[in-house]
Amino acid sequence: MNYLISFSNFKGSLTNTEACDIACKALREKGHVATALPLGDGGKGTFAFLDGDSSIQKKAYKIIGAFGDPRTAQTWWRKTESGGWQIFLESADAIGYPPTQPEKRDPLGATSRGLGEWLLLIEKDLGTEPCELFIGLGDSAISDAGRGMMEALGEKRFPQWKITVLCDVDNPLCGERGSARVFSPQKGASTEEVELIETRNLDFSKTVREKFGVGVSEMPRAGSAGGLAAALHVFLKGKLVSGAEFVLKASRFEDHLKQHDLLVVGEGKSDFQTLSGKSPWAAIQVAEKLHKKSLLISGSLGEGAEKMAAPGLVAKIACGREPDARGALREGIRQVVD
Question: How many CA atoms lie within 13 A of 122 on its CB side?
Fold first, then answer.
């Protein structure tokens, strides 16, 4: 068999690149052919497919994270034929959980300010050169709807930039499927805090409509990254797109899959959110289009995973993640092969 391995991150356990490497090794040990193509949808590892591209330059920036902690933020730079730049960044480097304290939660205190400071540093390096900026949203710890970012930017805007925002989910800013009610509890918000964040988001959307004539309360994807997507769209003219669909196209995923017999995807936990724009489900849809078989191997299967159904999806497996994530994934692969 010829396998295409396209895992997303196993949050807190394995990066998408690590997971792909483990699966490929396990399959090759059984005599199969396996190719790694890590996927993402806006969060950490989204631009892993750029690694190895000879046209890419990497630049690291020292910034302050969502909890006031010092961080190093990675960017990918590529010169365009017209003389400008394409720049790729994963906002989780600034607004995600601290690498040394992934369990830290503070839904009201976590801020997007570091992203604003990061953008100012990029502008300083760019000068007046034109730029296509691709911002991945996902794995965020914030619920501030971009207020911190805008405080850092002040009146600063980037008219010479074309900004594309890769959203990891399609949820709106407000309402039952909105950022506060769906995602803030995962970031540690109590019931009272959820309602406070929802009220802030409603006030924000009302102000935006009155001043700019833009409706973001029900806009698809505006709730991504604690509502940061809405701020990027309104104030920096960012175009909100599906992160999963962007990565599939930019990595030439369909062309790669055509050369393989079976697709293997997975993530840390597959649940109802996976169906809201995450890359494993998007990749399975491409496999269906090409009449290819697919297999889902995730750390766990949560509520909503039972709705992930497709004719070519041959199995859904929860391999576990603790205490040995590498061993669990390797065993999950071997179960299928054996």
Answer: 30
Both structure tokens of 168: 């990891």
Q: Does the structural domain 2-39+261-333 have CATH classification 3.40.50.10350?
A: yes
List the domain boundaries for the chain: 2-39+261-333, 48-244
Is domain 48-244 in CATH 3.90.1510.10, yes or no?
yes
- pLDDT tens-digit readout, 98-140: 988 989 999 999 999 999 999 999 999 999 999 999 999 999 9
Please give the Cα distance from 39 to 25 (Å, whole number). Answer: 18
What are phi and psi for residue 109, nearest 5 degrees? -95, -25
